[in-house]
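Final report, closing paragraph on structural work. Over the funding period we assembled a curated collection of sequence-structure pairs, and we close with a single example.
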Amino acid sequence: MLTLLLWLLRSASRLTALVLMAVVAVAGYARWQGEFDPIQLAGQAVAADPKAGRSEALQILDFAAEQNLADPGVLAAARERYEYTSQEKAWAVAQGAVTGNVVDAWSAIGAIGSDLLVIGDLRDLAVQSWRYQQGLSVDPLITALSGIGVATTAAELTGVGVTVDAGTSVAKNGWRFARGTGKVVPDSVLRRMFDELGTLATNPAAIRNSRSAVELADSGWRLFRGVGLDMPTFVKISGNLKSVDDLKAAARLTETYGNSGKTLLLLEGGDALRLTRNLGEAKAMTLFKRQPAVARGLLRVSQRASQIAPLVRLVKVIKKYGMAGLLTALAALVAALAGLPWWSLLALLAACLLLLVPGLIFNLLTFGKFKRQPNRNKGQNQDQSKGRRGKKKVLMVDRWRP
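Its predicted structure, as stored:
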């Protein structure tokens, strides 16, 4: 009994050490993969899109300054380099309101503002009608969404409300911006918003009775407000979301956590929601605020793990048997360890090895003692049994001999 107990304790210690080593290794990999350099990220955003990327760069710099993640003087100098002047803002708003062209955050504000006053919708309908009469190509989505905007503005007293009008305006101007930049992901919720709202008739009752259309319009407007009425950021985030539930979760994240939620979604898109679901919104956002590089590294680990078939099957089995809490606990442990300095992770690895080494030495020393010994008397015993059987036969023959 004592031997069995010792064997169980030794096996449990080895298993614990192996699990801890795996967790520490994953945490170290996450720390190695994660990076967050606000100056570099801001420069990359502007290099990718000189006009629309400025708002993304400013958002990243503001988040870094808010959380004290870099030198304030360096951040202020970078912000001054990308900031819009008062003249640029006024010109962009006027251009968006008059022409409806959306090229950055400020022109989108002007275009949507004119839509909410029905002027923009009437302007877009007039432009599309003129193009039709001239034999030029007509954008059916812009025409349909402009018609919906006029109808909902005229019928707000019937119960449709300003939310649908605002949501369709966001969809229309988002489509105009995305079409010019080519940033629409085919299977994203942004594409669904464009298609579903664009195919609805201009009857306000039809819009009101379409639950999915109302959800899309409402969630889209909430997210647009949450990102500070920034159309390039809205298009980039929603273009990486797959469902209406993701759109709602993203809107809630920006409403609850402000710049932190907006920056996380801006950098990671739909993968940010994976982090909040695995760790919980509060823990995930706390980690991102304090150590954004670690949070991004954990997402890289999650992306790599989702490509390993055995791990995916193991996760499915764990969830099937109601042990999803174990995955959450392991994810929280990895996140906590990833935030430790490198020397702490190395010390933990050394401690795990110390737990394993004594057991390995014991196995090496006792391997010969427990090895099965050959039976040296086996041949002798067989000869004796044969002799007994032969003698017995002789006796039986002698008994019946005449």
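Confidence is low (pLDDT under 50) at residues 150-160, 391-402. The chain has two domains: 1-33+293-365, 84-269. We thank the funder for supporting this effort.
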